[in-house]
User: Fold this.
Amino acid sequence: MLRGLDPLLSPDLLHMLAAMGHGDDLVIADANFPAESCARRLVRLDGVTATGALNAVLGLLPLDTFVDDPARVMGVVGDPEAVPPVVAEFQTIIDQVADAPAPIRAVDRFDFYDVARAAFGVVLTGETRLYGNIIVKKGVVAPSDGGAQ
Assistant:
């Protein structure tokens, strides 16, 4: 156990987050996501919601400020303008927790899978709400954030 960390941040997830570099993508996926076939690196958080995982991750991981879309979700098939409740909750978490809040951008399902296959890692949650998947791009940890001087 460590102090000051969200208990949802398992040792494997902490290792993955620490190993990521600026510009690396992290997928937080729902229970329906084909994580085993997509992931280069996989961490399981069974029984945890995707929104809970995102909240815990954004407490440590800065969003990339050098891109227009540091947070992407899978668009609803047949209705790309729809915003499922879980996606609205993702946006609320980003607005409240991220050090550099940004609007979420929806991408086509198959484009989402392509990005997921190239992502640094996938966090497979127990999320049961449909479209409970998000990709976040890691930003720079500045020296004033505890990095080396």
